[in-house]
């Protein structure tokens, strides 16, 4: 009510506005009450809200402006701010802050009818007992002013960590998904017992890609044609990337600009982004906790199912 009067007082005057508002269901303030409210010292709650509003606005901006109430509440508690989720939501509304919403998913892969296709070893069970047990991979694209940028990700199912990625102006196997795979294998080292799952896009069922998996001792697995559920986790990673980075900062001018932004995003995604599926922890924290626990307990049995 006070904010409304502030906005229109120069145009209509305080008394006429209060008189008009008195005829509505919510009209309760008088001109005298308005002036009293303007001169009244700020309450403890108001001062607290102002302090928290500054903190929340900064944290929201530091995390690509994508956090909604749940993740912001979890982040505040990690930072030592003890407040309720409803209070977090109220202050975010006061600051005009909200989480991003997922857009429409677009299919980007094309099956090769003549290609040999490995079996589906995952059967939609996107769980793993330890790191480097199950990876999922997929492609997406980003329109730029200088042409299309194609992006490939490889994600570790156990921790949701992006372990390999590539951004190129072409979708060929060697330039895009194979480069992401090579980054993943270089980063992770030990690959025994690893399964690599993708959709049936021609890049992933090509001889070059499947031969590389075999040379590395990685078991290849693919889902069915045009079925996002058979590669749901990889589709989710693509969707988060498009929602949290690409749509937030468009338009994009060059492929190189997308590549640099993707580099920064992947670091944030792995080291700082809170994942609700990981009990609001980061992928790095989940892996660190696993390796710390494994030094004093027996190793998992190696199945795809959680131990």
* CATH class term of the largest domain: Alpha Beta
Report strand order across the widest sheet. 3-2-1-4-5
Q: Considering DSSP H and I runs of 4 or more, what fraction of the residues is helical?
A: 40-55%
Rg (CA only): 26 Å
H-E order: HHHHHHEEEHEHEHHH
Describe the global form: elongated
Regions with little confidence, pLDDT below 50 for 5+ residues: none
Characterize the biggest β-sheet: 5 strands, mixed
**CATH topology term of the largest domain:** Nucleotidyltransferase, domain 5
CATH-derived architecture of the largest domain = 2-Layer Sandwich
- Intertermini distance: 57 Å
The CATH homologous superfamily of the largest domain is named Ribonuclease H-like superfamily/Ribonuclease H
Q: How many domains? A: 3
Whole-number mean pLDDT: 86
Structural class: alpha/beta
Task: Count the E strands.
Answer: 5
Keyphrases for this structure?
307 residues, Nucleotidyltransferase, domain 5, 5-stranded mixed beta sheet, 44% helix, elongated, Transpos_IS3, HTH-like_dom, nucleic acid binding, RNaseH_sf, Transposase InsO family protein
Walk me through this protein's architecture:
By secondary structure, this protein is α/β, with parallel strands linked by helices. It folds into three domains: 1-39, no CATH class; 44-95; 134-291, Ribonuclease H-like superfamily/Ribonuclease H (Nucleotidyltransferase, domain 5). Helices cover 44% and strands 12% of the residues. The chain is built from eleven helices and five strands, in the order ααααααβββαβαβααα. It has helices at 2-12, 14-21, 31-39, 44-62, 69-78, 85-95, 177-188, 207-215, 232-249, 255-271, 283-294; strands at residues 134-144, 147-156, 161-168, 195-198, 219-222. Helix 1 (2-12) crosses helix 2 (14-21), helix 4 crosses helix 6 and helix 5 (69-78) crosses helix 6 (85-95). 30% of the residues are buried. The model has no long low-confidence stretch (mean pLDDT 86). It comes from Naumannella halotolerans. This is Transposase InsO family protein. Involved in the transposition of the insertion sequence. One of its GO terms (molecular function) is nucleic acid binding.
